[in-house]
Amino acid sequence: MFLENYLSIDESLCYVQKGIDEKSSIKRSAKTIIKNAIDLLELRPVFKFAGYAILFKTVNDKTSKNSTEYKQVCRLSGYFYDSSVFYPRDYETSTHFSNLDESFFHSSEAIVDELVDSICITTHYLKNIYDNDGYHSHLDRDSKIKAFDFEPNEYLNLSSKRPVFSDFHQENRCAVQVPRENVFFKINELDYIINSFQESNSKIEFSLNEENMSLQTKNKKLSKRIDYLEQQLSTTLENEGQGDSLLILGAVMNCVVDIAKLNYTQQALIDAILSKYGNITGISESTLKKKFAESKKDIKQRLI
Predict the structure, then answer these.
(1) In 3D, which of 89, 86, 149 has the Cα closest to residue 120?
(2) What are the strands, taking DSSP E only, across the chain?
(3) 177-226 pLDDT tens trace
(4) Coil, strand or helix: which one is 54?
C-alpha cells in the first residue's frame, strides 16, 4: 500500500520526462531536473532500510536544571528520508542521492517516513545533575525503559550492524549502504517539480514572446524610417543634381547674351542647337525651352 504513492528512480525519470515533454516546448533532461531539485531540497528521496538505528532524546527536569540524554538502540524496518544533506554553516547541500546513476547510495542520518516494524533493544542514558556540589553526570544502561515514539522530523543514526558503545559514544558508527532499487520518490513531489518547471518555462516563453513582439515593432518602425530616409536622400540628390545643372545653364543663358552678336535670340540658339544635336534623344525644342525657362528662374531665385 505504501509504495502506491511512490515511484522508483527509473520510474521517476520516465514520469518527469513525460510530464515536461507534454507541458513544455523547451526540452530538458529529467535526470538534470531531479538532481537540481534534490540539491535545492525541493525533492527528498525516500529509501527502504532494515537494520539498526539510534534514536536520540533529551528530557529536561521541569523543577531543576537537571536533564537526561537518551540513546535508544532499535532494530527496525521501513522507509526513511535521508537527512544528512544540509550544512547550515556553508549553505550547501551534499547528498549521495543526487547522482542518480549510482548503484548504491549512502546515508548516516535519516528521518522516519513510514515505519513498518521496530523493536527497542536497549537504552543508554546520561543523567546531568546540577546540585550544591556543582555539575556531574552519570552513565547507565537499561533495557527495560519503555520504547520512545518516533516523532516527525526526528533524526536517527542508522547502522547496518548492532551499535557498540564505549561510555556514551558509538564505536562502530558508519553510513549505511542503500541499493539503487530501494530508493523512491513521492509522486506528489514529482508533480510539484513538473509544475514548477512548467511555470518557470511559461514565464520564460512569455518574456521571450514579449521581447520578440517588441523587436518586431521596433524593426517595423526602423524599416519605415530607413525607407523615409532613403527617399529623402534620393530626392535630395536628384534635386541637387538638377539644381547644379539649372544653375550652370542659367549662368550660360545670362552670359551668352553679352558675348553673342547683336542679332542673338533664344530661338536662334535653339535652332543652332537643334541643327547640331537634334538627332540626340532628349534634345527637342520643347525640352530646351522648358529647361531655359527653369534655369533662368533658378538663378534669379539664388540671386535674391
Answers:
(1) 149
(2) 6-8, 46-60, 67-82, 86-87, 92-93, 104-107, 109-131, 134-142, 155-159, 165-166, 169-170, 176-179, 183-186
(3) 999 999 999 898 899 888 887 665 555 555 556 666 777 777 777 777 77
(4) strand
Cell numbers placing 119: 523493536
The grid coordinates listed for 226 are: 530607413
Residues near 60 by Cβ (< 8 Å), separated by ≥ 6? 66, 67
129: left (phi over 0), alpha (psi -120 to 50) or beta: beta
Determine contact, residues 156/110, Cβ cutoff 8 Å: yes
Beta bridge partners of 81: 46, 111
pLDDT tens by residue, 137-176: 888 888 778 888 887 777 888 998 999 888 888 888 888 8
Instruction: Give the SS3 label for residue 120.
Output: strand
Burial 134-163 (b: 16+ CB within 10 A, else e): eeeeeeeeeeeeeebebeeeeebbbbeeeb
Rounded Cα distance between 45 and 190, Å, is: 11
End-to-end CA distance of the chain: 104
C-alpha to C-alpha distance for 156 and 296, rounded to whole angstroms? 108
Q: Distance between alpha carbon 269 and the CA centroid of its chain, in Å?
A: 82
Q: What are phi and psi of 58, to 5 degrees?
A: -125, 125
**3-class SS letters over 56-91:** EEEEECCCCCCEEEEEEEEEEEEEEEECCCEECCCC
Supply 127's cell numbers: 543523567
How far is Cα 154 from Cα 168, in angstroms, rounded to an integer? Answer: 20
Centroid of chain to Cα 59: 46
Rounded to 5°, the CA angle 279-280-285 comes to 75
What φ, ψ does residue 61 adopt, rounded to 5°?
-80, 125
